[in-house]
């Protein structure tokens, strides 16, 4: 009985850990599949397979769903042999990507847990190696994984899990993440997120010197503190070889928003003016006008016209396109909104929709919407402007 109990624990402990972690990892990324697709595009660029860029979103939704499906299938023990094969191949694939990112210093945030739990590449690789060890245990014992249901019932649960997993990713893509982990979330004060508070710790760097003794040929490596403390710099027998290496020892405080700069066509900075207004402003964010939904732009323009005429609301179109392209687009669609420009990276983080809408007052994000879920004019008036 003791051996049987120990053998059961050997299977169930990694089974629970792997199953729950795969579900959690897939769920976090499926909460923001568009963000995960941006990360996939970074990998495509690294490996020179940019012809897959158009498939990034589909692959993101499917990969997230696959993680959740495999994790759930492992927990209920359905099709254990195939599931453990799938887990092994998937974790080897992820392990390769995280190692490549860490070793060659290319994609510096792997997106393993989306923006909820940012990990460095080496942290991600370490996590994958622990998972690989657990998956290997399950792979060796794959024929001993007992199902919780009959084969027929297990398949039904698996079909249901597949529908829910895919459906969740499709839903969040069309109606924004259920939980927003980005710095532009509802309730965030953008100017505050862009500033460093007084007294916040700063980055600490260390200089490393490579030294060589002219007489003996002895070499030493010393940091700047020891270099000064030992007075070795006064000894003419020791010389510095090459340039000192500057290394980051401790990361200081870093504002959540570091790359947002809003400009007009003449590159005049309007960031402070637009974000410090005490009145409601409607920001229509379309980071790429060539790929934006044109029908949505027309509907949002009609909304902007009503808000501007009846409540003098300032409406702004934010884009990363060139001024020439943006002005031509505005003329074609008869846009009433003022056009401003910012880098595409912060615009993608502002709202996971192209176009997307933010309602801002005093620099605080009052609400934000995917273009599929923007409320009607009367609802905006009733909920915000008449209060």
From TrEMBL:
Localization annotation: Membrane
GO biological process: methylamine metabolic process
Keyword terms: Membrane, Transmembrane, Transmembrane helix
Signal peptide coordinates: none
GO cellular component terms listed in the entry, alphabetical order: membrane
Domain Methylamine utilisation protein MauE: 9-139
Membrane topology recorded in Swiss-Prot or TrEMBL: Multi-pass membrane protein
Ranges that cross the membrane: 12-31, 51-76, 83-104, 124-141, 157-176
Keyword hit for Membrane: yes
Domain of life the protein comes from: Bacteria
UniProt keyword Translocase, yes or no: no
Pfam family, one: MauE
Major location category of this protein: membrane
Protein name as it appears in the record: Methylamine utilisation protein MauE domain-containing protein
